[in-house]
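[User]
Um, tokens okay?
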Amino acid sequence: MTIKAITALLLGSSVLGFAGAAAAQDATLTIESWRNDDLAIWQEKLIPAFEAKNPGIKVVFSPSAPTEYNAALNAKLDAGSAGDLITCRPFDASLELFNKGHLADLTDLSGIENFSDVAKSAWTTDDGKSTFCVPMASVIHGFIYNQDAFEQLGITPPTTEEEFFAVLDKIKEDGTYIPMAMGTKDLWEAATMGYQNIGPTYWHGEEGRLALIKGEQKLTDPEWVEPFATLAKWKDYLGDGFEAQSYPDSQNLFTLGRAAIFPAGSWEISVFNTQADFKMGAFAPPVRKAGDTCYISDHNDIGIGLNAKSANAEAARTFLTWVASPEFATIYANALPGFFSLSSTPVEMEDPLAKEFVSWREKCEPTIRSTYQILSRGTPNLENETWVKSANVINGTETPEAAAAELQKGLDSWYKPAK
């Protein structure tokens, strides 16, 4: 071999070696998500903050339409073309991806210790041994009220059930406002903002939810029937024609100033801030009597995991550790008020209404919606059936006892608790 050839070979080797080193250092990560409404937040706030600290890693946020996400993601995963980071829906959809080997185990990820077991419950295996997504945000249930209306009527936010119904009576008697804006046409509204909102007060949050999963409690027990009985009383305060009222109708009634109270999820905050021209406040689900422990549904909504077949696993884990950090939590929670960090480190909120919702974590016991983990995997689906029964009870077409008995009968037909 000539000296010229040897020189060329050595030069080629050094160039390849340099390229290999650069490739090992530099990576472009792609995030799959169904949340296309927060694209600007990722592009303008989150990604720049991460890239500033990790100059060798570029991040691309590539969302799909929400209704197409599950099918599109599964097709990409099966074809090996999915992004490095997978935005995780709560509970069974993501658990199925983990069980199929599509999501990596993140139990040992640096930063995962920043989340409680309740925070991780939507992305943890049934046996509690493996966590496969980093929790990003939850939504909290409660009641949003028209502060101007309350001041006008001399009303203060209620803390007990007795005070709650006294407030509703006073608003109804005055006649200026519909006491509460909620309809039963769309069904889910009655369950999500009704039964799952006040229910944890009766079944004592996680204590009751876990007892139901273990088969130690039934939906026909008093702690599960009584919230239906309370919901039945709401009928008198929802205004004329609430049975035909859709969820957007309810939102409009409140933001137009025609209703005084909105049984809510914190996801309403961003929408209501842009639509309501009056001051708003919020109060937590009332306790049954003064001195009782209060409970809130602090429901896991969104997480993010690692594609098990990612070619950039090391860089992706670096990103996920950042997602688990207080810096990410602060940026995300303030950019999307009403979607709260699940980190054990408190996040300073800027939006006053969001501040009020998240302050309940300091005094109330958190839980998640009772139907979401394990209990809605069969047919009939407990979550969907609870929508129907909650609406029926409020409409007065079914008694609380009959509704609970039907739900338990449906659950018994397919669910056998592990002993």
User: Anything to note?
Assistant: Strands lie at 27-33, 57-63, 85-88, 134-146, 178-180, 259-265, 280-283, 294-306, 364-367.
